Amino acid sequence: MQIGIDQLAFYTPNTYLDLVDLANARGEEPDKYRIGIGQSEQAVIPVTQDAVTLAANAAIKVVDQSNRDKIAMVLFGTESGIDNSKSAAIYLKRLLDLPDNIRALEIKQACYGATAGVQFAADYVRLHPDKQVLVIGADIARYGLHTPGEVTQGGGAVAMIISAAPRLLNLDDETAFRSEDIMDFWRPLYRSEALVDGRFSENVYIDFFKAVWLDYQNQTNRTIADFTAFAFHLPFTKMGLKGLRAILPEATETQQERLKANFEASRQYNRQVGNLYTGSLYLSLRSLFDNAALKPGQRIGLFSYGSGAEGEFFSGTISDQFKAQKSRQWFKTFFSNRKRLDVAQYERVFSQTLPQHDVYLDTSYDDARFVLTGVQHDQRQYLDRDQHKVTE
């Protein structure tokens, strides 16, 4: 029985910052960002969007009447949670009008949370092949204005349906993982922006990738020749390229060209969105599905990394049901129609945060279906515009 990713959708708001504008404002050469970091644009997240609304706006694309009653769990990977006790998945479950006989949990380990959700979901579906699991990766990446990490900000959400007989990717059983207590990136409870040791974090990322890749090879006896493409966690797209380069010498020249071309396909969307934290790997996978010439049966390698640190290498084969995806046109239209903010506008949006008291937010400029309308009695208020009702 084959288990894997049946659907994979994405959402981010329609406002963005061109990183050439940011480079000029910060006195940097634009190529430092476009080539050195590998980023062109980044999503700018308004205060009317949080991890819950981002997730809802992505998930509504993969949840409908055809599968609503089949979903047995919601697993919400995030490091941008809105409550120290209550799971973001509980809010999402209500916004999506999912049934009550369901598990709804939040998973946290930096950018690794969604991958933990995928693996837990796959194990569940193997035992319950008539059920599905909704897995979310939703985050807002914040490092602060005028900081070294500013160029790697962004945000958005991916939503995946894990099922039997998937239409996108059949997950292999073998997986290799590693965890160590490392202070390369962290965000204490009292901070809204993350702290990061950038160079150290890059080195740990590469070390973890090489370690889990070797472990995976030892488990499976597969080599780089067995893979059509690799998808990476992309806090910035140059990071994934560094990971790929670490193993390219294992491939023939022809194989290297194929892998490099498919990596370029896999980072197109991330270049224009920025850092998604838990969703970054899966936006890259969506970009690979949409922009590479893939065929059923081809094997894809996936590297997930969460600072602090947890890494995992796993793989899957393209489903026999895989076909050209409509989402490629959706992304093309979306990127063409986004609103470009200048640096002053971006800084104003970035600086708008929820106060530590009740507030009503103006949502008139936010075109999303699900929005955060404010806080009342210390409870976040969410609006589903299609239902014309507020959900607390």
Automatic annotation (TrEMBL):
<feature type="active site" description="Proton donor/acceptor">
    <location>
        <position position="79"/>
    </location>
</feature>
<protein>
    <submittedName>
        <fullName>Hydroxymethylglutaryl-CoA synthase</fullName>
    </submittedName>
</protein>
<dbReference type="GO" id="GO:0006084">
    <property type="term" value="P:acetyl-CoA metabolic process"/>
</dbReference>
<feature type="active site" description="Acyl-thioester intermediate">
    <location>
        <position position="111"/>
    </location>
</feature>
<feature type="domain" description="Hydroxymethylglutaryl-coenzyme A synthase N-terminal">
    <location>
        <begin position="2"/>
        <end position="163"/>
    </location>
</feature>
<dbReference type="Pfam" id="PF01154">
    <property type="entry name" value="HMG_CoA_synt_N"/>
</dbReference>
<dbReference type="InterPro" id="IPR011554">
    <property type="entry name" value="HMG_CoA_synthase_prok"/>
</dbReference>
<dbReference type="InterPro" id="IPR016039">
    <property type="entry name" value="Thiolase-like"/>
</dbReference>
<dbReference type="InterPro" id="IPR013528">
    <property type="entry name" value="HMG_CoA_synth_N"/>
</dbReference>
<feature type="binding site">
    <location>
        <position position="275"/>
    </location>
    <ligand>
        <name>(3S)-3-hydroxy-3-methylglutaryl-CoA</name>
    </ligand>
</feature>
<comment type="similarity">
    <text>Belongs to the thiolase-like superfamily. HMG-CoA synthase family.</text>
</comment>
<dbReference type="Pfam" id="PF08540">
    <property type="entry name" value="HMG_CoA_synt_C"/>
</dbReference>
<dbReference type="InterPro" id="IPR013746">
    <property type="entry name" value="HMG_CoA_synt_C_dom"/>
</dbReference>
<dbReference type="GO" id="GO:0004421">
    <property type="term" value="F:hydroxymethylglutaryl-CoA synthase activity"/>
</dbReference>
<feature type="domain" description="Hydroxymethylglutaryl-coenzyme A synthase C-terminal">
    <location>
        <begin position="251"/>
        <end position="342"/>
    </location>
</feature>
<feature type="binding site">
    <location>
        <position position="143"/>
    </location>
    <ligand>
        <name>(3S)-3-hydroxy-3-methylglutaryl-CoA</name>
    </ligand>
</feature>
<keyword id="KW-0808">Transferase</keyword>
<feature type="active site" description="Proton donor/acceptor">
    <location>
        <position position="233"/>
    </location>
</feature>
<feature type="binding site">
    <location>
        <position position="242"/>
    </location>
    <ligand>
        <name>(3S)-3-hydroxy-3-methylglutaryl-CoA</name>
    </ligand>
</feature>
